Every structure is written in structure tokens, then in C-alpha cells.
Amino acid sequence: MIRPIHDNVILVLEPKPSKTASGIALVHLNKDAPRGSRTALVLASGPGYYRESKQRIGDRPYTEPTNTFIKNETRRGDRVVIDETAGQNYHFDVSIPRHNVGHEFQELVGEKGEFRIVRESEIHCIVESEAAAAE
């Protein structure tokens, strides 16, 4: 499996809906124009990142730097909402066997091996299922 570092998150975008829940067909006039937001599935999430801040000591302004570790909130299997233009798209040739990519990764990214890497700060929210919210 691919392991992201820092606050990077590897996502697989879910397909754009072609119909509404009531059955109305959605027409995408310009398919190349990025608009709105997309839902995606988290394949892997990095551990987090260190934020450096300066600490004030007495009357001396900000002399001691301190590092605070900010842990990522996303986990593998989460459904998230991101902006259409967030992150970078990648294409991974899954037909070539690799020692660090498991069979399950190949099933998730499909034959084309397309996925997106975003910073966790670019994720708008985590979509929780109704069953999890009831508990």
C-alpha cells in the first residue's frame, strides 16, 4: 500500500452523479470545467504534521519556538467532501507488479490507477453514515 507522509491524504474520487434521487437526469454542459465539490473515499492518511509557533517568555517577545503535533483526523475508509480543484491527480500503472502496492489498492483505484492526493486542510468534511450517527 502507498503510505502518505505529513498531512497528505490519498483519495479515490467517486463518480459524478448522472441522475438525482427523484430520477431527473443531470446534464453536465462543460465536463472539463471544475465546479462545486466532490465526494471521495480515503485510501490512506498521513500521520499529521508539526506546526511551529513562537512562545512568549516574560517580557521578551516570542523567543522560544515550540512545535505542536497536529494529528490527521481522516482515516482509511472515510467518505469526505473536497473541492473539485483540490489536490493533484495521479495516474499509477497498476499492470506493473510492485512490492509496495497491495492487491486491494489495485481493486480500489481500478484499471486506470487514478487517485488524488490532497492536504487534509483541503477536505471540507467527513461524511458519516446514518447508522454511525445513530449510535
Describe this protein with a few key phrases.
10 Kd Chaperonin, Protein Cpn10, Chain O, mainly beta, 135 residues, 6-stranded antiparallel β-sheet, two-stranded antiparallel ribbon, disordered C terminus
What is the mean predicted local confidence, pLDDT? 76
CATH architecture: Roll
Low-confidence stretches: 131-135
**Terminal-residue CA separation:** 31 Å
By DSSP (H or I, 4+ residues per run), the number of helices equals 2
CATH topology: 10 Kd Chaperonin, Protein Cpn10, Chain O
Strand order of the largest sheet: 6-7-1-2-5-8
Q: Summarize the helix and strand pattern as letters.
A: EEEEEEHEEH
How would you portray this structure in words?
The chain has a single domain (8-14, 37-134), classed as 10 Kd Chaperonin, Protein Cpn10, Chain O (Roll). It has 2 helices and 8 strands. It has helices spanning 103-109, 130-134; strands at 8-13, 37-45, 48-57, 60-71, 79-83, 88-91, 114-119, 123-127. The strands form 2 sheets. A 6-stranded antiparallel sheet has the order 6-7-1-2-5-8, covered by helices on one side. Strand 3 and strand 4 (60-71) form a beta hairpin.
